[in-house]
Amino acid sequence: MPSVIVLDTLSQEGLDLLDAAPGITYEVRTGLKGDDLRNALAEFDGAICRSGVKITPESLEGNRKLKAIVRAGVGTDNINSAAATRAGVVVMNTPAGNTLSTAEHAVTLMLALSRNVAPAYQGLIEGRWDRAKYMGAQVAGKTLGVVGLGRIGLAVVKRAQALEMRVLGYDPFMSKEKAKELGIEWYEKVDDMLPHVDYLSVHTPLTEETRNLIDIPQLDRLKPGVRLINAARGGIYNEAALVEGLKSGKIGGVALDVYAEEPCTNSPLFGMPGVLCTPHLGASTEEAQTQVAVEAVQLLTDFLSTGQIKNAVNIASLDAKMLEQLRGYLDVAFRLGKLAAGLIPSGLKACKLTYRGEIAGRDTKVLTAAFSAGLLQGAMADDVNLVNASLLLEERGIKLSSEARTDMGAFRSAMSFEIEGADGQKHKATGTVFGQSMPRLVSLDGYRLEAYLDGCLLVFTHKDVPGIIGGVGMAFGEHSVNIGQMAVGRAGDVPGGEAVGILNLDCEPPVAALEAVRKLAAISSAKVIHLPSAGELPAWLQG
Ligand SMILES: NC(=O)C1=CN([C@@H]2O[C@H](COP(=O)(O)OP(=O)(O)OC[C@H]3O[C@@H](n4cnc5c(N)ncnc54)[C@H](O)[C@@H]3O)[C@@H](O)[C@H]2O)C=CC1
Ligand SMILES: O=C(O)C(=O)COP(=O)(O)O
Questions:
Q1: CATH architecture of 318-445
Q2: Which of 371, 340, 367, 355 is nearest to 412 (CA)?
Q3: Nearest ligand to the C-alpha of residue 291?
Q4: How do residues 507-518 score in pLDDT, each as one tens digit?
Q5: What's this model's pTM, rounded to 2 decimal places?
Q6: Which family does the similarity line name (predicted)?
Q7: Matching CATH topology for 3-96+287-306 and 454-530?
């Protein structure tokens, strides 16, 4: 029965949904870190968190059980995504649930900062009636610069326009035309926008490009008295530069909801005149929390029960419909990967995949990941799945390329591999699905055949002369190895040439039986390759 750990405070509606999820158990354990966190994560199949817990590479060390982490919110920067990918753990988020609440918080900070709401109330608490001291600024008619025109940025733009502000914007992924359509004056460079704004609000993730977006050098470019707001991520404004700018009078006000280090209870900014701070409250409304919690639980329970992947940040999405459509081919891709690994068990150098026909028009990336998982599974101590297969392959220096051709070959859909070993050995094979879920090998090393892609295979090359099948059958019969299925393929229609044969054996053949087969005069090679049995799906494809 899949189990879930809830690592940060989650709204009751989310917990109720977990309670009601059939076949899923859960525990709430908040405030975990270090060894406690690592040990806890190793006990569960799925985890849900907010921004509180920090999931580091150490938190995932040795974890063989966890399959997914869902962030009930937007930013996944508290989860080490590279480590999660390495461990084969899907990381998903709920991108839209807290958009409006966070935008409202940014606007709240802008207005409250402009009208000195916090210090004026503090004055009242302390018995002062400071009307003259707290002269404010009206926002109508002022210019707001927005950096990051995504979900929250655009919601802020809309609200600022309703407040009759002029809005300038910068986002490398927003076109000038689209910005114009939205009533935003578009800037190609953020630095060019800075001298024109009375207010600046940032709504980007923290990246190498956005870190220290406002630092000491930028202070000179800012309009004197500018008010800066950050309800996105700490570090976008350099906190020391903010202190500097406030002290010099260059900056008129700073409102922060987020900090370079969180939790942050001690900052030189706290208590400075013109500063308004909240403890990461952007998404803290009943509405936002209900929505992100419900969405997070749905994402995780769908994933754990059907394999559906949505809003993942470290793997392509795989929705229920696509999963259903691709399940047969994901299975073939995985089996072909295992076949390839059996044909060249060590020293694989390069691999080329070709998708042909209808399947070429679908998400072939996920099929490539399934093939890679098959290729590596068994060779690796780590569990290999769709999330980490491509990375593990790359780490091993195996070159993988793929091509998709929508023109149909002999089959409506087919997938082929060509592999090359370090010793120059080459193999190629094509697989397809008969019906909905019958994986078949339809060519091997240029020989056409029709073989079952399951169970224990004996792959042998031989001269296409009479008596081969009888000889192999005798050798196995003497060792009580039953042959379940058999397929032979030859290059052309003329007998006497080279041919390939595939037997599906009902059990592992003893060494002596294999030796007997290899001794047959017309047989040039014979090897055993293990594939999953008929109908057996890898864990990540079950549902
Ligand atoms: N304070 C809080 O409680 C909350 C904070 N956030 C934070 O707000 C931020 C924005 O969230 P969303 O709008 O939902 O994300 P989003 O992905 O919809 O938008 C981000 C935008 O930033 C843009 N961008 C990326 N790099 C940029 C750069 N170098 N310069 C300018 N723009 C750049 C992207 O093109 C995108 O349009 C995230 O960092 C998120 O973690 C989100 C929710 C709550
Ligand atoms: O969604 C985000 O990115 C947030 O920053 C909200 O964080 P929280 O869920 O309130 O810890």
A1: 2-Layer Sandwich (3.30)
A2: 355
A3: 2
A4: 999 999 999 999
A5: 0.85
A6: Belongs to the D-isomer specific 2-hydroxyacid dehydrogenase family.
A7: no
